Write the structure tokens for this entry.
Amino acid sequence: GSSIVPASTNPRLLRYMAARLLVAAPQSPMYEGRWEGKGPALREVSSAGEVRMFVLDDALPRAYWVPRIQVEVGLPAMVDALSADGFEVAQMCVVDAESKGISDLATLTSASAQQTATAARPNATCSVEDLSPERVVVRVDAPDNGVTVLCDTFDSGWSATIDGKRAPILKVNGIFRGIATPQGAHEIVFRYRPWSLYVGMAVACVTLAWIFVVGARRLVNRA
């Protein structure tokens, strides 16, 4: 059979996922390093036995800024929007309509939305620091109001602040995180604190309190 990836698999989505390195075994549809139809450019960097390794030179960085948004409802609609011809990933991200803070985002990006899609804009600068598995810092200098996208998986256990103030995390491009970002230089901090952690701490505190009360009663009874 053919080793070329079918066009229906939307290989362009790999670029949006910030996937820079692909490892292909002989049975993989990517083994030939080319696509049927349009797809990201693959460059082979090494091979070991029958395994081939490719780099996507045009993959998006882990964190980047965009001036415009497109709002869709649900994952299938978001993927369709990303796959559409003419979608400008460097200028726009797709935001889930059910994201918290979506109304504030519409106000923030209204000025940017009035600009034409082809308007020339200076690039934003973004840097990422992994301080721990539960804390990620993104520093961004945005030339306009927009959204900073972090290509890390969206999860309700994550919270975020921008310049020390709590900020809702948007679900963008299907599975990633985004923060509404005003013009200027900002520090965005993501912290992972799942509800299960707080529940566990609450249970532990209640248990310790119960042990203390029971122990105190026994001491009083002995006295």
Observations:
- The CA atoms of residues 4 and 35 lie 5 Å apart.
